DNA sequence: CATGAATGAGAGTTCATTCAT
DNA sequence: GATGAATGAACTCTCATTCAT
């Protein structure tokens, strides 16, 4: 695939992200995409066979962008508690951001829940839990935190965040609620937000 | 609407539940329902105008069934901690049950997240949180539990459960994980499962 | 058909007239009629097999009502010119009346233009032309009017009225226009409206 | 829209005209058109959204064709009386032609009598009346005709023609009758057909 | 590579008509 | 006679997908 093709593909993905954000996953038709990115009907099929394939690439790009933020070694001189707080603040932004693909992602995952396609989401989850567990274990070792089962605590944080994300897309959630949940989580680990 | 009509309506709702469970919300067409309950194309329209209306009634029935379990005064001689545990066990069943409408429910909620139709879900959530808060407050007052902010703890439980429900429908969750999360929750409230 | 049946039939016809007036001929469904007269779906079929049959009876009733007005010997002491004017005034009312079945009648006639069903309309037209011709011939004989070919004059009046009726149902017509056309017609017969 | 598209559109319009002529306006379905012009179901929708849109374009074409005949400067060396006669002869052909859209046009107009869509018909009528009025005024000025109110005479001609057109589609009309009506009209203007 | 007209399957919906009660 | 639930054919319209240019 040439350079020109790659640029075109990126154009499509950007326009598609907008469409998926606005209309979710299932409601989106190839026609919608075609209209949104001003490409020809047949032309789109040269790059993507269907909306599923398209969405998967959109999601991939999204994950990569998010991951790069999270993996950044911004934690040089920070203690585990500070790092955890930074992570939770990042998640807060994600929960509350307006132009999220979260709803579309859920739709996609529900649709493909019996197939293998949800694996990348699962891997992402497992990875996150492990990182959190390590963080908490470190926090306990360095006596910043109090926790008997870092593994369960990590999972609990992950599920709580997942629950807030789902709620944000369905029944709604306020910034204040997210804040107080963050404070509560920190509290269960024996830390207090200054 | 006569007695016979009501019976028919119930038949349709039962068949429809099966279809929604199998295929989610959006993928379901009136034709699917028609074929599932051996009624004529036009006949179905005598009872329901579209899949949305149908699904809302299916969901209503579902809520009523669940609610009746929760509202049951099974708590006569139980202390707050025992009641909470019973509630969490009930939720565990719901999280793990195979024939759940959860995925379809999420699809429905995402689809209608900007309209008023999601309100019943929100009310259900708020109600649950209030009940949990009361339970924890009682538990603290009777010195069964330790908790500085019952309100946040209640919300935390609700979001954790929501996160596990969402996870169950997407990346999957094991009974063991649910059990250990229940234990962890009880632990944060200063209780230990025997 | 018993007395009760006849009453029921009349009820249906009255409700049906309203429906045909409001929605024209073709747009009307048996369902519309059923809903308008509060009879059962199957019940309606005991009296009328379809909307065509129904409309024909509604039209028949209408003709009979109109005819009775026109045939009335209101012309005792009137001269032919006065009678003609009276007739034209009657037609003016018909042209301008709001609750006319004219549009539905046209629809019906166009629909059935190749069948025998339009004959009653044709008979009605021929009868009217003959009466007008006689009137004009009398007027000429008694030297109230001037006309070389009463037959053509009569037809001309009939077609002009028909044209105004059609116009009233499509592009609209004002009372003033009808008035001036009546005056013009009288003028062509050498008469002047005082 | 390319050249090929335009040709296709014209093909559709021609096939559609045939269908509308045969079956009127309301009875025509998109399926009828599809079958008549050997196009695919979806293909037709690329050009026309519904039968109304289609019929309006068919009618437009028709009007344009008719108009071009009337606007032709065939009147170089003709006096007003001769022009009027030519016009009436043209109308005679229209009244009597077998493959006319008149019936469908009436159906369409009745159907849309309360909307703005009937306006083009009204404009057409008004335009015709004005042209006739001018013709008669000229005829009177040049002493070919005798008429006290050219405006009313013009309207009378228009309504008479309209009446004959309607009659042709419903109760029928013979060539002889149209001829004698033309003669009568000329007579009322003080002219005699040689 | 790129285009966009064309296809046809299939969804939603309505209605005349029937028939067991 | 009277009811109204049930039927199934038919209609409108949309969309993923193909294919000649």
How is this structure best described in words?
The structure is a homotetramer. In chain A, about 75% of the residues lie in helices and about 0% in strands. The termini of chain A are far apart. The first copy, chain A, is elongated and about 60 Å long. The first copy, chain A, has one domain (about 50-190): Tetracycline Repressor, domain 2 (Orthogonal Bundle), CATH 1.10.357. The longest helix of chain A is centred in the last third of the chain and has 23 residues, at about 120-140. By secondary structure, the first copy, chain A, is mainly α. The first copy, chain A, has 9 helices and no strands. Chain A has helices spanning about 5-25, 30-35, 40-45, 50-70, 80-95, 100-110, 120-140, 150-170, 175-190. The mean pLDDT of chain A is about 90. The interface between A and B is large, with 42 and 42 residues. Chain B binds a DNA duplex (21 and 21 nucleotides) through helix 1 and helix 3.
Q: What is the secondary structure topology, with strand pairs?
A:
4 copies of one chain form a homotetramer.
Chain A: H1 3-23, H2 30-37, H3 41-47, H4 51-71, H5 80-96, H6 102-111, H7 119-141, H8 150-169, H9 175-188
The structure holds a DNA duplex (21 and 21 nucleotides).
The CATH architecture classification of chain A is: Orthogonal Bundle
Largest interface: A-B, 42 and 42 residues
Q: Rough shape of chain A?
A: elongated
Q: How would a textbook summarize the main sheet of chain A?
A: none
Indicate the radius of gyration of chain A in whole angstroms. 19 Å
Oligomer: homotetramer
**What fraction strand of chain A?**
under 5%
Number of spatially distinct domains of chain A:
1
In CATH's first tier, which class of chain A applies?
Mainly Alpha
Order of helices and strands of chain A: HHHHHHHHH
CATH topology description of chain A: Tetracycline Repressor, domain 2
